[in-house]
């Protein structure tokens, strides 16, 4: 894992020739590891769609647009500026999907699901001073709505993006009074669902995501300024 992380960072930084990845022999020689470890390193990179490994052919780096950006491993290994770009792209995806999921849920949501969402709203209000615990409830609130929409494909798309969603929420939760605002916005979504109002749920979710995006951009700017001051 350490060797795979190191090689990924080198590829991103342009330190490896375009299109060519190191072979098992080269990895073994450079890092002082066995051929077995070198082979497993390439398997990890291949599982993330970073390289193509074919029997009897050289290992090649795949185009960056094709990497598995939903993998938590890759998110950990990428530089901050690329993760920031991915978080913005995640918000674009959420803005396309989640308002419609909320509208779909409002049309068919059960009393049992509404009861669970109500409990989660209560837990959010009690956890506004505990960002990490709040994050888990926040994620479950959105997934509960997704499940209520009763579309397995959309559910898996949302679930697959959970690692990026966690990274995004950690940033937006850092904003002053961010969790208090988030609870208010989640409550507005919940109330539209209770009223079984698809258009109201769609609009409330859209407002929530728009506010999140603005907060994300503001936090990114604050981090850049802090980094500049440290330099």
UniProtKB/TrEMBL annotation:
Residues 1-64 form the HTH gntR-type domain. Pfam families: FCD, GntR. InterPro entries: GntR_C, TF_FadR/GntR_C, Tscrpt_reg_HTH_GntR, WH-like_DNA-bd_sf, WH_DNA-bd_sf. It comes from the Bacteria. Keywords: DNA-binding, Transcription, Transcription regulation. This is GntR family transcriptional regulator. The lineage of its organism: Bacteria, Bacillati, Actinomycetota, Actinomycetes, Pseudonocardiales.
